[in-house]
Amino acid sequence: MFDPVCPTDLTPFRVGDKWAGMIIRCLEGGPRRFSELRVPLRGVTAKVLTQSLRALERDGFVVRTVRSAPARHVEYELTALGRSLIGPLDAACAWAREHWEELLEAREAGSATAGDG
User: Fold this and answer.
1) Alpha-carbon distance 115 to 98, whole Å?
2) Which of 33, 35, 56, 94 could in theory staple to 61 by disulfide, Cβ–Cβ 3.0 to 4.6 A?
3) pTM
4) What's the Cα-to-Cα distance from 83 to each of 30, 78, 109, rounded to whole Å?
């Protein structure tokens, strides 16, 4: 999922936007700061990551907590609802791995015909 050559939009469904599934994966191990999320999600801009986190928070999948000690910082964590998405994400990733070649062939065929119209 985090491989730069992997077209993550080949997964069969999305929660929220392009980055939401990967954010959920990043938060699977526990709370993380914004800067910690930027490391594995190196392809996302700060603006888009902020928008994605806000959407996930709005939809009840992520909770944002402001910590004041020892230094002020913000952490993001999955809610119980967000955690409930891990199983479906696992299934979607397994499906995508099983059908990888077919998905890539369909994508390439679609790209080739898109220029014909």
Assistant:
1) 29
2) 56
3) 0.77
4) 10, 6, 36
pLDDT tens profile 71-104: 888 999 999 999 999 998 888 888 888 888 898 8
Q: Does any domain span residue 35?
A: yes
Looking at residue 13, its pLDDT comes to 56
Q: Is residue 82 part of a domain?
A: yes
Nearest CA to 79 out of 7, 15, 18, 8 is that of: 15
Listing DSSP states for 70-109 in one string gives SS-EEEEEE-HHHHTTHHHHHHHHHHHHHTHHHHHHHHHH
Q: Has residue 3 been placed in a domain? A: no
Domain with residue 72: its CATH number is: 1.10.10.10
* Per-residue pLDDT at 5 exceeds 50: no
**Ramachandran sector of residue 73 (left: φ over 0; alpha: ψ -120 to 50; beta: rest):** beta
Number of residues in the chain: 117
